[in-house]
Design brief:
The radius of gyration is 17 Å and the shape is globular. The two termini are about 20 Å apart. Strands 1-2-4-3-5-6-7-8 form an eight-stranded mixed β-sheet, sandwiched between helices. It contains nine helices and eight strands. By secondary structure, it is α/β, with parallel strands linked by helices. Helix 1 (about 55-60) crosses helix 9 (about 250-265) and helix 2 (about 90-105) packs across helix 3.
Length: about 270
Amino acid sequence: MNVEDGRIQVDTVGIAYRRLTPECSEAGHPNSDGSPTVVMLHEGLGSITQWRDLPEVLARQCGLEVVAYDRGGYGRSDPLPANYSDGFMEREATDVLPAVLEGLAVSRPILIGHSDGASIALIAAALGSVTPLGVAVIAPHTFIEDICIEGIRAIDTQRDEVITGLARHHDDPRLAFERWRDVWLTDEFRHWDIRPLLERIVCGVLVLQGDGDQYGTDAQVWTITGKVNSATGHILDDCGHVAHRDQPEQIAGYLVEFVSDCLSTGG
């Protein structure tokens, strides 16, 4: 497995990325000839490293290049302003994600997103800022549920412990945590809702969520499958919000199968 860690510039922000190339393709990046590339979008407090070994597993089992990157203000990417506004996921989907893909010469992405990253992937596919072969989402948000707000308030009571844990993954863990917490707990953000966009998605969609997700209910899954003709959903037993930590083998199995389906229908 060839692993390349690098940075690209998106406007004034340096974005850290990791590119994994399976051995069968190490002579050159697979996407250099327009081959599909798996692109992974992390959660609201996530980073490249918080995907654990899932990117490597997918690269090896799918035989495709896998790219993961830290959004601005997360991981090893440059910081962003101290405050998010309530359109931050839409901006990521329409401005940052297309620029990252262009900078990394990814023309045929298969998007895999977790939590906020899942929502960003859905928005990008719905608005056409990216044209993915498929979108797989883990614990997505399509509208704000009470359980989500309650979960964020609960984790805020343990902020110091959480920030200490995040320090292994982020250059500025306190800012990453507080910016995420603050925007989700604003009154304005309670009205955030991307359900009207979902019916515009034309590619295949896979939705995965744990039965013990602390930030969402199965309404998120069935909302997507009810509005996207090509969507399928699964609820994972004994699984919380970070499904690739709680049920890594099951998550990898679903994702590998989904990527294979994307290749057979559009690859």
